[in-house]
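TASK: fixed-backbone design
INPUT:
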């Protein structure tokens, strides 16, 4: 389903007066508004192929209908998001949930929607039909070499799929760990995992990156073999210059200072990518910015500061992706909200007066330092984000457009009310 450009134009025309009033107000407050708008236009957030269906918990799943039935329809859905917000120009695939059977066709379809292929994601946290060995007791950490080899081979296969599509990165998230004290020898588990990752790393093309994602707990509840940023950094450092740590916001213990983690990883040149979501208790997979927007701002503040300090390009030098999927919302509406929250927070972080903040820090002026950050966080930048969208051909209010045009009803009409997307 391709959106009618003239419908977006009509929508924008209807809203333009209100928009311009808000934009002129905020634009007068911002230094070099043109440079800021360009940064917002360039910034793209990859959508994971598993976020397009209604997610579930282990207790139940309540699909809302019209979910994409195959990879082609998933690409269409992301194309729809991208047509509305012009900030969702990439898709991140999960193998084996979304194997591209015909890479040329899939690549052409994605290009038609203006989409690129972001990081490829492997899966050794589930057993697949016909698989020789089980991952019940881990994959890359497993005590049995044959199981480890199976996990290595799978990851190398994922790289091959990615090569056909033009992807340039592999994300490895392992559920490996243990549920009870004594179950695992920690050092052996680490060494086995490192050796397995080394084999995958050696199959990595020269221009690829490998992201090692960590998670504090779940599905294992006593120990996780890539449990925190220290462990991930250890693997990434031992693997080599193409390996990086990936930070998923939901993968920390409660109250972890994620902004500090981000700052230090950037300092070491080892931050590779980001998975956005929000949470109150654990890995809740809630909409970005829905629970802890100030934390998200503080993280973005460190990202902008740290990337600028290293001369990195905000839009392309890190992998930006949403990793969320839950039960009660229309997944496309949820993704529009998440991307909007990311863009708003990025814009706020760009507004921080870095010079004044550095001065305040040197003078130990705690109050001013806090004021500078909160000044940016409390600025309503929505008109800036909307202006960037307008310039690149998107809708002034993507969510309103989606609802006014009853896009979900159209999807249900064509795909049926019982269709269910692959994923968690
Ligand atoms: Mn993740």
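OUTPUT:
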């Amino acid at each position: 389903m391709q959106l009618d450009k003239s419908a977006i134009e009509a929508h924008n025309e209807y809203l333009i007066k209100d928009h311009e009033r808000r934009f002129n107000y905020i634009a007068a407050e911002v230094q070099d508004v043109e440079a800021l708008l360009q940064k917002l236009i360039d910034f793209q957030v990859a959508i994971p192929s598993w976020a397009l269906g209604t997610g579930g918990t282990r207790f139940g799943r309540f699909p809302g209908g019209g979910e994409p039935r195959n990879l082609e329809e998933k690409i269409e859905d992301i194309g729809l998001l991208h047509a509305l917000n012009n900030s969702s120009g990439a898709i991140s695939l999960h193998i084996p949930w979304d194997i591209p059977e015909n890479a040329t066709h899939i690549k052409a379809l994605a290009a038609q929607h203006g989409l690129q292929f972001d990081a490829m994601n492997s899966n050794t946290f589930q057993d697949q039909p016909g698989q020789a060995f089980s991952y019940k007791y881990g994959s890359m950490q497993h005590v049995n070499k044959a199981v480890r080899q199976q996990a290595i081979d799978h990851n190398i296969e994922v790289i091959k799929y990615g090569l056909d599509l033009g992807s340039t990165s592999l994300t490895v998230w392992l559920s490996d760990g243990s549920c009870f004290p004594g179950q695992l020898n920690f050092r052996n588990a680490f060494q086995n995992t490192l050796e397995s990752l080394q084999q995958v790393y050696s199959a990595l093309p020269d221009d690829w990156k490998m992201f090692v994602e960590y998670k504090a707990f779940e599905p294992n509840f006593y120990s996780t073999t890539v449990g925190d940023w220290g462990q991930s950094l250890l693997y990434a450092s031992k693997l080599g210059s193409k390996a990086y740590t990936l930070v998923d916001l939901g993968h920390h213990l409660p109250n972890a200072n994620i902004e500090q983690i981000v700052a230090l990883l950037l300092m070491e040149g080892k931050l590779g990518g980001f998975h956005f979501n929000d949470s109150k208790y654990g890995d809740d997979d809630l909409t970005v910015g829905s629970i802890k927007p100030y934390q998200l701002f503080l993280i973005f503040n460190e990202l902008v500061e740290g990337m600028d300090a290293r001369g990195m390009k905000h839009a392309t030098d890190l992998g930006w992706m949403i990793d969320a999927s839950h039960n009660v919302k229309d997944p496309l509406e949820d993704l529009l909200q998440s991307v909007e929250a990311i863009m708003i927070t990025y814009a706020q972080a760009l507004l921080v007066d870095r010079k004044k903040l550095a001065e305040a820090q040197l003078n130990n002026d705690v109050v001013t330092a806090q004021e500078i950050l909160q000044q940016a966080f409390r600025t309503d930048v929505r008109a800036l984000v909307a202006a960037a969208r307008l310039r690149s051909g998107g809708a002034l209010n993507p969510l309103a457009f989606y609802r006014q045009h009853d896009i979900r009803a159209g999807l249900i009409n064509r795909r049926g009310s019982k269709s269910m997307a692959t994923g968690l």
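COMMENT: The chain has one domain: 44-342.
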